[in-house]
Design goal:
Two copies of one chain form a homodimer.
Chain A lengths: L7 E4 L8 H12 L5 H10 L1 H11 L5 H15 L6 H8 L11 H8 L4 E6 L3 H11 L7 E2 H4 L6 H11 L6 E5 L2 H9 L3 E5 L22 E2 L2 H9 L2
Parallel strand pairs in A: 1-2, 1-4, 2-3, 4-5, 5-6
C-alpha cells in the first residue's frame, strides 16, 4: 500500500486538532478561581471513555453533548461546585469552543488543496460545526459518529468515510493523536497516521508519544503530516 | 412568529444556490457540440422527481449520484449518444461541479456571521462537499438527505436540521427557489424564505417566480435575503 496517495483524510478532533485540556482549564480557571482547573478538565475528559462504552453496550444512541453534560454534573459535584441548570448547559458548550493547536488551522487548509479533509469525531455535528466556526477550521464536510449513530471504535463509524465519499477504505487515512483510535481505523481497513500531542493532558502531565510499529506514519504535528503528504 | 430571528438557515441547493442548468448545458455543449445542450440539461433534471418518488416508494435508499447516473444513461440514449462507462461516470460528476449563482457565495458568507448556515439538499454529502470546494462556498456543516436516508419532502429530512442543532423546528428557516420544497418545510414546522431564480431552467425558459401567500418572505436572490435578515 502506497501511503502517499490517500484520497480522504479523516481527523480525530479532541486532542488531535484542538487542545481540549488547555481550553477547558482556562475557562474553568476563569469561572471557578478556587478549583484546580487542570484537574477539573482531566476529570471531565476521564468520563468520556466509560460514557462511550455505556452507549455502545446499550445500543441506544445518545449524542456527545448530552454525555458531556451528564459527566459535567458528576464532576461539578465531585469538586463541590453548585451551578444552576442554565449555567451548566452553557458551561457544557465549552466543548464547542475548544481552541486549535497552533499548527492545525493552516495545515488543514493546506491539506485541503490536495485531499478531501473531514473530521471523524465522536463529537456531534453541532459541536463540530460550532468548533470549526469558532476556530476558523475549514472542513470539506462535517462527518461524525452521529451520522451512523455508532461511536468509534465501532467499525461502522470508520467505514462511513469511504461509503460517503465513494472510495475504498484503503484510500481513507485516519489521523489521530491516539493509538487506540488508529487501531480501530486499521481494523476497519483504513490507513493511519499518528500525531504527537505530548501536552494533550496539560504541560504538567506529558503523555507517552512513542511510535508503534503498527502505525509507522508518525508526525510531530499536523503541519509535519502536511509537509509529508504534499511533498509527494 | 418573528421571522427575523431564525437560528439556522437550511438552503436548498440545486437551482437555489447553484445554476444547474447553465453549468450542465455548458459542459454538454463542450463535449457534444451537435446536441441541444439546454434540452439535454433539462431532460437530465426532469428525471429527478420520478427518481425521488421511486426511492420514497421503495423505502430502499439510493444516493443521488447513483440516481443521476441511471437518469444520465437514459438521456444519453434518448439523445442517441454513445459513451463508455468511464466517461458516463465522469460526466455524472458534473453535478459536483455546478457553478453558484453570482450572489450565492458572498451572501452565504455574510449570513454565516449571524446564523448557522447549512445546505439541506437531496444531493449526497460527497456531491455537496465537492461542490462547496469547487465553488468556494463555505457551509457550517454539510447536511443532506443522505444523513437521514429520506429525500425531501419527507418531514424527517426537514426535522433533521433542528434535531442536529438542538433548536426547535420553528427556529430553522428553509431557503429555496421552489415553492413545493417550502411547502414540505412548512408542513414540518420550519420557517420559509423563497428565492426567485427565474432562469433556473435557462434564459430561454423563464419560470414563474410569483409570490405565494403561504411563503411571504420572498427575495430576488440570496443577497436580498441577507440584507433583510442582517438588517434586524
Amino acid at each position: 500500500m502506497d501511503e502517499t496517495t490517500p484520497k480522504v483524510l479523516a481527523f480525530d478532533v479532541f486532542g488531535t486538532v484542538v487542545d481540549w485540556h488547555g481550553s477547558i482549564a482556562a475557562e474553568i480557571a476563569d469561572r471557578f478561581p478556587d478549583v484546580d482547573a487542570a484537574e477539573f478538565a482531566r476529570a471531565w475528559r476521564a468520563g468520556y471513555q466509560p460514557a462511550m462504552a455505556s452507549v455502545a453496550q446499550s445500543g441506544e444512541w445518545v449524542r456527545l453533548d448530552d454525555l458531556h453534560l451528564q459527566i459535567l454534573r458528576n464532576v461539578l459535584s465531585d469538586f463541590q461546585l453548585s451551578v444552576d441548570e442554565a449555567e451548566a448547559a452553557e458551561l457544557n458548550l465549552v466543548w464547542h469552543r475548544l481552541r486549535p493547536w497552533p499548527d492545525s488551522v493552516e495545515a488543514i487548509a493546506r491539506l485541503r488543496t490536495r485531499f478531501t479533509v473531514v473530521p471523524l469525531s465522536n463529537g456531534n455535528i453541532s459541536l463540530l460545526s460550532d468548533m470549526a466556526k469558532n476556530a476558523g477550521i475549514g472542513w470539506d464536510a462535517v462527518l461524525s459518529a452521529e451520522i451512523v449513530r455508532r461511536y468509534k471504535p465501532d467499525p461502522a463509524t470508520y467505514r462511513s468515510v469511504g461509503e460517503i465519499f465513494g472510495v475504498p477504505d484503503s484510500e481513507v487515512m485516519m489521523v489521530a493523536a491516539h493509538h487506540d483510535d488508529l487501531d480501530g481505523a486499521a481494523a476497519a481497513g483504513l490507513r493511519t497516521a499518528y500525531i504527537e500531542r505530548p501536552n494533550e493532558y496539560g504541560e504538567d502531565r506529558p503523555k507517552d508519544v512513542s511510535g508503534r510499529a503498527e502505525h509507522p506514519l508518525h508526525f510531530a504535528d499536523i503541519a509535519a503530516l502536511a509537509r509529508h503528504l504534499l511533498a509527494h
